[in-house]
Request: fold
Amino acid sequence: MTETIIFYVFALMTVVAATAVVTVRNPVHAALSLVLTFFTSAIIWMTLEAEFLAISLVLVYVGAVMVLFLFVVMMLDINIARLREGFVRYLPLGIAVAVIMFVMMVSVITGGIFSGDSVIEPIAKAADYSNTKALGRVLYTQYVFAFEIAAVILLVAIVAAISLTMRKRTHTKYQSPSAQIRVTKADRLRIVKMPPSSEPSRSKTLSNESLGNE
Reply:
C-alpha cells in the first residue's frame, strides 16, 4: 500500500513537471522543471528495485547534462520574439500532433494493457542481489553491439553540435597561439634614430637666467 501511494504521488509530480517543461516560457524554468522530472522518475525506478538506473539518471542527466543545458541556455542570446513569429503558422500542426498523441495514450490506457491480469508484479530479490551486476552482465554481453552503436551516435551528435554552433563573432578579439610563437624581435621592437636637438635644454636656459639676475 505504501509503495502504491509513493508511485501515484511521484507519478503525478512527474506529469506536472514534464508538462511545465513544454508550457513555461522561460527556458531556465523549463530546464529546472526537467530536473524535477528526472528526480521523480528516479524515485519511481527505485521503487522497481532499479537502483543503478535511478542513480545514473540523477548523476548523468541531472549532474552533467542538465548543467550543460542550463549553461548553454544562459549563455546563448536567444531572441524570444523571433521564436514566436512562427507560432500561429505551426499551430495547426502542433494541435494535430497533440490530438494524435492523446488518442494513442487513451488507447493504451483503456486497452487493458495496465489491467491487473496483464501487469506482472516485480519478483522479490534477495538482500545481496546486485542490480548493477545483473544490468552490466546483460548490457555487455547480449546488447554490446547496440551499446557501441549508441556510443558512436552520441559522439557524432557531439561533433555535429559543436560544428553547427561554432561561429566567430566580429567584435571579439581572438589570440592565435601559432602567430605568437612565430613572432620575432623585429615584429615587437622598433628602434628609432633621432638627430640631436640644436636648441639648448630648458634646464641650462633657466640656470643662465638665474645667474644673470644675481
Q: What stands out?
A: The radius of gyration is 34 Å. Residues 51-75 form the longest helix (25 residues). DSSP finds ten helices and no strands in the chain. The mean pLDDT is 78.
